[in-house]
Structure formats: structure tokens, C-alpha cells
Amino acid sequence: SAIGRTETAVNNLNPVFGVKFKVDYHFEEIQRLKFALFDEDKCSSQLYEHDFLGEFICTLGVIVSNKKLHRPLTLANGKPAGKGTITITALELSDNRIITLTLCGRKLDKKDFFGKSDPYLEFHKQGDDGKWMLVHRTEVIKNTLDPVWKPFTVPLISLCNGDVDRSIKVLCYDYDNDGGHDFIGEFQTTVTKMSEAQNSLEFECINPKKQKKKKSYKNSGVIILKSCKVNQNTQIPIDIQYTLSLFIVGIDFTASNGNPREPSSLHYINPLGSNEYLSAILAVGQIIQDYDTDKMFPALGFGAQLPPDWKVSHEFAINFDPTNPFCQGVEGIAQAYSNCLPHIRFYGPTNFSPIITHVARFASQALQQETAAQYFTLLIITDGVISDMDETRHAIVQAAKLPMSIIIIGVGNADFAAMEFLDGDSSVLRSYTGEEAVRDIVQFVPFRDFRNAPKETLAKSVLAELPQQVTQYFKQRNLSPSNTASE
């Protein structure tokens, strides 16, 4: 279904569109978006009447985790659509203040040979890179040098990233049907300056080129701010989401999974390709990879004996490179998993605590470096039989104080009572010392319940508790969202 359409940029191969789209972002869902560009030829609202220029398809998760995406446009068959590219910028509406501005103009420069001018305003904010970015474009007022624009309301976060002292540049143009809009003048201000004005506030509209040429130049007219109101928008429920820095995958290679050379094993080395673990890795991996910008995942195994000395390990790199355990995307994890299966011996016991403590060390280091935005999620794929319940409970209680969460995917048909207990949904998890977890950080999902369900259903279940776990962590540390938006 269509979310909306931008305005038409006339006679322009490098358009910057002013229309914005507000999309509800559901972290735990796969929300596919298509951006299609057309050349408007006729006065028709039917898209097939216009020339198709190219499209770009992605998920909302990719946009959120990148914040700014620049991608080539493709034709419907996936081939490049010439040299055309699209840039998409996303901003989270975590600040629910809105600003309403009412403006008019006086004695603007006459630009049209016949008649006066057709003025409109553009509001630009300054990015962290110093570049100006279009935020809002007013309507055009025809044939006047004293325009009165309709009041308009935008989220404060759109206008100035919620920073009331950030520079805003206002440009005034004379609209031309052929797209060659004439520049009238500009001025700069801030929300602070605009809101401090008790009555109307006047800004001289300056054309720097004219100012250089003429000594007697005063201005190209005056823009008058008649009113500026900043309010809380009670309609937007604040639901702060975070881009997660790092997913670590942990795979259970203990003997309870069965001999990988037999079809009954959950790790069956299947000549036809798949087994229960591989299915879970691919299904869950596709969901999480949208939230990691570089798509590099450390993948660790536990409970196996490793060559050449056949010592048992509870935290080994499945690509056998301990200095660089990273796999490229979900395909990289699947590849490393399939490659390591024939070279290891399944053993035991099924100890969860070493891998949890391993990730907790990274989370703890990130805290000491004060990289507040770093949040770690350990994804454990297991048959659910657990040997070190006391140590695991203790490790989870300690991990709850750190920027990390644990998602456990149970494969096979075992009794998952122990996993449900660790999930802590029904009661607070306690360590064997009696210490309570400061927050619930475990989400358990039995893969068998979703084996044949749509990907979206599994995604919802896997990621259901993660946003509030992350939010709760940052709230407990009294960190504001602006300190925690991670690239």
C-alpha cells in the first residue's frame, strides 16, 4: 500500500524533495519499503501514465540503522537505472515537541518581467557535517511582493534536531513554472531567537550577490515572523528505539544434539543442505542483520572438542580464527557453521555461563570506554539441555547490569522448562547467591513453534522484548536518547 507521494520537482535532474513521510517503526517487524521515481508528463494521478525512472527497495531497519542511505536506482529487473541515485535520510521522532510558525513578507524584490513575484520560503537546518539540509518548503503565494503564508507545524526534531540553538537558514525564492526559481534573499536564525520574540520579529532578506555589487543595498525585502509556538505533541507516543551495535551468535555443539552424521541429529551434515540449526541461523540471522550497519557478526561455538589437541571449549570461533571471529552477514555465519561441523567433536557439558561471561567482558569494556551507545545482544542457538544452571543464573544477573541482552533460540523437541525459567517473564531471575537481576535481559523462543510460520512472525517473537530491554538499560543509567543513538 502507498505511504505517500512527494511533490513534483519541475525540470530538475537533482531534486531535493520537501515532503516527509512519518512511518511507525516496529523494531521487531520486517517492514519492506519501495522508493519509486517517476517523470511527471501528464496531469494524471495514475502512476502508469508517467515515465518510470528507477526504484530502490530495502527494509525500514536498514534505513534506521544507517540514518542516511545513498544507493543506486534500479529498474524492476534489478539492473541499474542509468546513473540515477537516491539519498534517504531518517530521523527518529524521539522528541515530541512541535513548532508552529506564521510568516509573511514585505516589499520583496520584483523578479517577474510581467507582474510581481511568486514567493515561497525554504527552511534548511545545518547538519553535523556543516552541510545544509532542506526541512520545509512553504506554499507559493502568487503575484505579490507582500506574501502571507499559511501557518505550518513541523516536529522540532525535524527543524533543528531538537537543538533550539542550531542554525536555521531561511531562503526566499520566486517560483517559476519552468523550474528555474529565482533567488530573492536569505537570513539565518535559531528557534531560541524566534521563540524569544514577544511580538512579531523582522528579518532582513539579504541577497549576498546584490549586497556586494551595490553600496546602497539595504535588503531584498523583509520576512516577518508573526508567531512562533513550541508545544508538546500529545498525539505522538514516545517510543524510543535504538540501533544495536553488535550481535554475537553462540551455537551449541554438545553431544545432546546427536551425532551430526545421522539424520536424527539437529546438526545433521545433510547432503541436501539444511538441518535444524542451519534453518534457525538463516531465519533469525536475516532478522538481526538489518540492525548492524557493517553486518559483521562474531560467531562462537560451545561444548565441542577442537583439533588438534581435542580440548573441550565453551567459547571458540566457529571460523577457527580466534583473533577475528567475525562472519560477513548471515550467509557468512551459515558458511562458517557448515565448514566447522565435520572438523569438531560434539562433547559437553552444556555450559552457557562461559559464553555469557565472554560477551559480558566486551560490554563491560565498552562501558569503561564510555561508548554509551554500544549495546550487545548475544543470540544463543541451543537444544535447551543445560548443565551449569547455577553459574548461568549468576552470569545473567551480573550481565543485567551491563549494556547487553540474551536471545535464546531453542531448536529440536526437548523440554525447554529451563529456558523458560531463564527468560524471567513470570518471576524475577535470582542468582544462587540470592541477588536479583536489575532487569530482565533474556528472551526465549522455541524455534519449533515457528518452523513453518512466516518470517515476520518469528521476527516479532525474537525481537519482541529487545526494545524495552535496551530502553530500560539506558533509563536506569539516566542516559538521554541523544547520547545513545548508535551508528
CATH architecture of the largest domain: 3-Layer(aba) Sandwich
Q: Tell me the overall shape.
A: elongated
Oligomeric composition of the shown chains: single chain
Mean pLDDT: 86
The proportion of strand residues reads 25-35%
Per the CATH scheme, the topology name of the largest domain is: Rossmann fold
DSSP strand tally: 22
Count of domains = 3
Low-confidence stretches: 234-243, 480-487
Superfamily (CATH H level) name of the largest domain: von Willebrand factor, type A domain
Which structural category do the helix and sheet elements fall into? alpha+beta
Which CATH top level class of the largest domain fits? Alpha Beta
Description:
- This protein is α+β, with helices and mostly antiparallel strands.
- The protein folds into three domains: about 1-90, no CATH class; about 95-230, Sandwich (Immunoglobulin-like), CATH 2.60.40; about 245-485, von Willebrand factor, type A domain (Rossmann fold), CATH 3.40.50.410.
- The chain has eleven helices and 22 strands.
- It has helices spanning about 60-65, 155-160, 190-195, 210-215, 275-290, 330-340, 355-370, 390-400, 415-425, 455-465, 465-475; strands spanning about 30-40, 50-60, 70-75, 80-90, 95-105, 120-125, 130-135, 150-155, 170-175, 180-190, 200-205, 220-230, 245-250, 295-300, 305, 310-315, 315, 325-330, 345, 375-380, 405-410, 440-445.
- The strands form six sheets. Strands 13, 14, 17, 18, 20, 21 and 22 form a seven-stranded mixed β-sheet that branches. A four-stranded antiparallel β-sheet has the order 8-5-12-11.
- Helix 9 links the parallel strand 21 (about 405-410) and strand 22.
- Helix 5 (about 275-290) packs antiparallel against helix 6 (about 330-340).
- The radius of gyration is 28 Å and the shape is elongated.
- The model is unreliable at about 235-245 and about 480-485 (pLDDT under 50).
